[in-house]
Amino acid sequence: MSEVLSIISQDNRSAVTHTSVVGTRGEELAAEFIKLAGFRIVMSNFKAPIGRNSRGVAVTGEIDLIALEGDTLCFIEVKTRGSDEFAGPLANVNLRKQRQITRTAHVYKRMFGVPEMPHRFDAISVLMEKGVAPRIELFRSFWNESKFKKRAWQNEAY
């Protein structure tokens, strides 16, 4: 039994390593892509504490790329896949991920003293299928933060 568990854990480590290598390569390709599109990269892999989850555990947010396009600060999530057979790369940029990036972006703006600077949230899809040149797509304003702002209840009938 321990031999089986050992084999399974070895397989998991190689899968995680492969996934992180693919993800890192995707972020490098995305950075080159946006530079060619006229963006100026400010930072990559920005991490900051953004609060605590419902169990009280500290949560750290991460933003893959932060760049300037003109005067607009762009917070960019990069998703890379080796195939889009089951779902495209952007399928994992769900509401939870968007909320986490939005909170991290606000920490970044406070930390660097640019709270009033215009910003947006972009996503880049990188598809790296074997034997084919990578396909990279930029989605400007992939989401906005309005759905995450706390609102007072309105006097509306539901």
What does this structure look like?
The protein has 158 residues and is of the alpha+beta class. The protein has helices at residues 2-36, 95-111; strands at 40-52, 58-69, 72-81, 119-127, 135-143. Strands 1-2-3-4-5 form a five-stranded mixed β-sheet. A hairpin with a 5-residue loop joins β1 and β2. The chain is globular, with a radius of gyration of 18 Å. The termini are far apart. The chain has one domain (20-146): Trna Endonuclease, Chain: A, domain 1. It is 33% helix and 34% strand.
Quick overview of this protein structure:
Helices cover 33% and strands 34% of the residues. It is an alpha+beta fold and 158 residues long.
Q: Can you give keywords for this protein?
A:
158 residues, alpha+beta, Trna Endonuclease, Chain: A, domain 1, five-stranded mixed β-sheet, globular, disordered C terminus
CATH class: Alpha Beta
Report the order of strands and helices.
HEEEHEE
What low-confidence regions span 5 or more consecutive residues with pLDDT below 50? 4-9, 152-158
Estimate what percentage of residues fall within beta strands.
25-35%
What value does the average pLDDT take?
Answer: 86
Q: Count the helices. How many?
A: 2
- Spatial gap, N to C terminus: 57 Å
**Main beta-sheet annotation:** 5 strands, mixed
